Give the backbone structure.
Amino acid sequence: MRRYGKHTDEDDIRTRPNRKGNRPRTHIRPKHEDAAEGMVLTVDRGRLTCLVDGRTVTAMKARELGRKAAVVGDRVALVGDLSGTKDTLARIVRIEERASVLRRTADDDDPYERVVVANADQLAIVTALADPEPRPRLIDRCLVAAFDGGLEPLLVMTKSDLASPDKFLELYGDLDIPYVVTSREELASGAAADMVREHLDGRITAFVGHSGVGKTTLVNALVPEDRQRITGHVNAVTGRGRHTTTSALALPLADGRGWVVDTPGVRSFGLAHIDPSRVIHAFPDLEPGTEGCPRACSHDEPDCALDAWVAEGHADPARLYSLRRLLSTRERREGD
């Protein structure tokens, strides 16, 4: 056995080679206590645009975050080059806890859920009263996702000059959802934006709707400086619109009085990730009546205690009907 003396040469020391040629890993991760706070404005092919101290910064997710992804609306911690100048890149090293999450899946059989926006206070569901025809089942699905994710819904109806909103409002009247009715003339003049803006003050509002309903046009009216995006048109044959927004984008309202998040037009809104038992929380007037329900009651079955409770006069039967319509929306096709 060879022994080393006091004056060994470094060439005499045996070391195990690092095959990958990189630094050895450690389980100790930096805390990044000096990281700056920011908000994710949009995500595009792995690059995230964030607002940091009033300036936009391009960033990428740090490797240490693993598969955890940041989405529009996330509050994040960033390190690196935060100047926001061209060709600079910061790193997102932490994603803060979310106050609310709007999720969807491609369909009801898809196990992969997609987070649309984080930390929004309100979900504005935009639908046209005609051209294209409204899709109540899609709206029901958006409402379920909003209730489940902790967002308050707002119904925005466009093109009231083509069809009356009365029948549509009757369908959702028992849900006590605030709403705005606008016409094409009001949308063009900016009056529609003023009507909607009253519901946005001091809040982060995500806008959803299928293509052709005027969602992006309305957002552009709310945020005039973002008018460079091209609005779409409705296909006269299919009645469907052309997508005009390819990724979610957070935009500030004037005077810092809130945010709007424009999301891509949706053709479907899957609810595979939704636990139906959580939908009841959006109906506080009905929730006390569930105390007598059997274990794991879906509130849409013969043994549900809500039937007798409502029959005794504790709540409006129309509210129970609305609850069950939303609960059953996963059983129906969205175009029904």
